[in-house]
Amino acid sequence: MRLTAYKTLTATALLSCMMMSGCASSDSYNQAFTNKNVPAGNGHTVNANESRTFKAARIKLVQQGFAIQSMDPTMGVIKATRSIQDNKNKDLTYSISANVDIIPSDPNTSIVRMSANQQSIMHHVYRDYWKLLFILPLFPTGIHYENAVISEGEVTDPKFYKSFFDGLDSQIAAEPVAVAAPTPATVSPIVEIAAPATVAPVIEVKPIAAPEIKPPSVSTSSDGNISMTTTITTKPVTPTQTINTAPSISNQNAPEGVQK
Asked: Does residue 84 contact residue 66 with C-beta atoms inside 8 Å?
């Protein structure tokens, strides 16, 4: 009886709220992309590149008890959820889902934006009893558990986002900046190129033989004619002499593999 009455009351209340909200603002979803529905304080600029910012955001979410559902370092997107129990009512739990988007602004600066939704979930425990004559409960026969979402919506409190961004700045400041190791200087091998050998021209000297002229001889023939004969002889030519004008190279100064 108690369970049936509670369910009926809950269904009636939810239906009434839906009808009232529908009549009051049936086109409220059309305002989803207007500036007035943008959460205040959900954007922040950090002095770190995209890689450092992504790492710091992931670490901060895990430190605060968020469970990473998915992440994409290439796109700079992290999705995480967390459940928090109410301090006063142990049957009330807040379920938070957060999306973090990281956009590089320049090589040393990144823009971080967060959007979050919250559900308030009430946990109910029902016990069934065996009842005498269907009226008087005598002893329990079972237990039933039920979760009811009593409220749901976007997190609009700027303090929620400021708390995350303050922690993000602290995490980035605590992370050491990676310094790239200096590139070692490349030493090129020294190649010694030997100068080409100077080939001196070879000059062939051919001496010219000087002719030898003998004194003329005079003879008289039988008929009284006088004749004069001159004899010219030449000496044989001596062999050709070659003169090499190349400088001499001593074995001491000659390169390796070159002999005098």
From this structure: no
